[in-house]
């Protein structure tokens, strides 16, 4: 349970000699405790010196949450100012309850206000049954990162430096370090990261780029936008990533680069791909949009080829509050080129030796990414834990005879998606789960060689049988760091019901 500790409760708990169960709950993690920043000055004024020490100790275990100035202004003339603020915070941050010594002060509203005794029995009673799991609930844990994110955003709004600038550079430095590369260049989206990387290699009309037909559209779309031709290679049926052993049969004198995709959060088998690229003097651009933090033989995604392309689309593992992306590289030459192409090829300003585009990242998004990066390892480990919980539950329930689980062939898999596979009845299961309020989705229903806009590439049914089969058989289940074990049990129970009783 997530609880807001009202100031009346805190004063009593901190100045009493007895131990408080609520504070114990917060210290042991049974509850997540929050305190409004507006109550801190009050506490500092009324607490005795030794009680202040207890407050400082307690604050290590609590999270401070802050109302906006407008929220304060709206209620500050109200007699029950503190209570009104507390109610607003609980609603906007979706906390479960307020703990107060005088719940009657809050009467007549929809928020649960509990005394210590009431909270105690609530924590010990069985939780209410689950009846919904969203595929992704992006704002569910916003309050956990709010202070870090809003500090970054305030920096930017006060500086007036909205496009590129120091905030973008700070983010780039941190991302380069995280991805184990020398440099990173913030750009306007993951799609633009792919496009600008191809442009940095001078790829265009008459060139060919080898990639996967089983990916998000942007992978091949960006190749076509440069004027080059995408040449598809089928996927491995276990990892859903490019089959390295098929690449060489597609290499022609026109081939310039290979663009492997690290789909769903797991790296493609890069060792043979790097060897082929070396042998034929080709460049490698990694589409790492779904795989920040993924590893292949202890090396991070984005450091395995010449350039790595990441997306900060909100649904990715590291999402901004809008569009954004980044290119990682350890080549000084590519780094310099990317920075020039990002601003229309201008260098020095207003002098153009090449044609780039507006691929600039804005400082607000860079600040959000920089703040969230601190949490990424925790979130990634939580996703990995969720994946192993699913695997365990599916095995315990003997469901692996109906569905194939997503194996981790190259650790570390970062599970942007948790994909199960069904030889038949995939669409039936999808609508069954949606009927039970369980979010799930098909990524992707139509392989790229079948897309109308690529008809001129002259591909036909059967050209990439594994990609075609994957499009008919895969299903993504909720895996975000916010979901609970109980929600996962609910999902697996429903899948069990689908197969055994239906
Ligand atoms: C999301 C994604 C992209 C594009 O990123 P945007 O930021 O949405 O432009 C490219 N490739 C893959 C594999 C993706 O998942």
Describe the 3D structure.
With 502 residues, the chain is α/β, with parallel strands linked by helices. The chain has helices at residues 7-15, 21-28, 39-46, 49-59, 69-75, 81-92, 116-124, 142-159, 166-178, 190-200, 218-225, 270-279, 332-342, 363-396, 426-435, 465-473, 485-500; strands at 2-5, 32-36, 63-65, 97-99, 113-114, 183-187, 208-211, 229-232, 255-259, 283-287, 295-296, 299-300, 307-311, 325-329, 418-421, 474-477. The protein folds into three domains: 2-125, 5'-nuclease (Rossmann fold), CATH 3.40.50.1010; 142-370, Aspartate Aminotransferase, domain 2 (3-Layer(aba) Sandwich), CATH 3.40.640.10; 375-501, Alpha-Beta Complex (Aspartate Aminotransferase, domain 1). It contains 17 helices and 16 strands. Strand 11 and strand 12 (299-300) form a beta hairpin. The protein is globular, with a radius of gyration of 26 Å. The two termini are 35 Å apart. The model has no long low-confidence stretch (mean pLDDT 95). It binds pyridoxal-5'-phosphate. Pyridoxal-5'-phosphate (PLP) is lined by residues 189-191, 215-216, 218-219, 261, 287, 289-290, 311, 313, 323, 325. Residues 189-191, 215-216, 218-219, 261, 287, 289-290, 311, 313, 323, 325 line the site of pyridoxal-5'-phosphate.
How are the elements arranged and paired?
Elements: E1 2-5, H1 7-15, H2 21-28, E2 32-36, H3 39-46, H4 49-59, E3 63-65, H5 69-75, H6 81-92, E4 97-99, E5 113-114, H7 116-124, H8 142-159, H9 166-178, E6 183-187, H10 190-200, E7 208-211, H11 218-225, E8 229-232, E9 255-259, H12 270-279, E10 283-287, E11 295-296, E12 299-300, E13 307-311, E14 325-329, H13 332-342, H14 363-396, E15 418-421, H15 426-435, H16 465-473, E16 474-477, H17 485-500
Parallel strand pairs: 1-2, 1-4, 2-3, 4-5, 7-8, 7-9, 9-10, 10-13
Antiparallel strand pairs: 6-14, 11-12, 13-14, 15-16
Helix pairs in contact: 8-14, 9-14, 10-11, 10-13, 14-17
Bound molecules: pyridoxal-5'-phosphate (PLP).
